[in-house]
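The pair is set out directly below:
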Amino acid sequence: MKVLGSIIRSHVANMRPNMLDLDSAVTDTAVYAGPTPSAQAWFAGGERIGYDPKARAIVAAQEAPLKIFLRREGDLAHAVAFLPGYPDGSFGWAKVRRHLPNAAEMPKLFVDYVGMGDSDKPKDYAYSTAERTDLVEAIWRDLSVQSTTLVAFDFSSLVVLEHLRRRLERTERGEPAGGPDIRGVFIFNGGLFTDGHSHPWFTTPILRRLPNRARRGLGRSFTLFKMMAGVMWSKDYKVTDAEVRQLHNAMSRHDGLFYLAAGAGFVADHKAQGDRLDFGRLFKAYCGQFPFQVGGSDEDPFEHRQVDLAQERLGKLGLQIERLPGGHLTTNEQPAALAALIAKFERGLLKMSEPRSTIYVRRSVP
């Protein structure tokens, strides 16, 4: 861990000079973002339910091999599914939620994957895009979600792509597509194309290669955690100590900071899938059925190339593309602006689904 700390100090200093001396970088107030939400309050607003990963099903909590966290608001039959980013999980939506329409206007469903937030965090679990998708689909079935808008941040873009691909494959096999009707897909700062990932090598690439013995102590040093997390914010964002502390609290529940390494293989997952999870192919397969909107932050060091590739490859085909200022954690830096994009997108979908009024023309009788 001392070697890893030295590597992180060196490369964070080169990438973001103002994050080397974290005591001077951390201030009492954050630019743009407003008050810091409490991880404890966020999780108190939800619940832990039973999940059986082998059966890919939600089960009674007392019989469950695992428990996972979800937070529900409003009529879940038509809820917007807010899928979490790595590594902050559902807590990443806490600031954004404050700026979204109420539950009557926009029903919401938030979830933590296994290994994240207030969900259980088994250390011998096969973490992958596929198992995350299994969980989301199981939740939809259990809660009888009939239609949804998929809102994905960061690595949940891959869960969306996996679900869309599964629907095509099921249809090809003559099976029901599975899952609720999809009103639209909204992805921000997520992986879309396998050749678009730009993760600095000292972040997820090195984390996923850590041996198990090193993973278990990951992030227990708060100073090291701050250095690791610093790369997610833009250089002009004055992150507060309270903000970093609440992020640490959310991630460390159930002794879960090892997930930083255990869950860091999602880029490798994407590249291994190749054409199967290519956003361009899936967009072309579905764009006639529902709208897509993708976006990215100007200073995102992880996926900043994705929206440029999307514009180049799919812009002429009608893909909606949006950009916001700031670093990777747009959910922290620009929560109001991100919420406004999501709300506008959802309102547009609902307007599209409204039945058109019938117009009767009365003819004059000669």
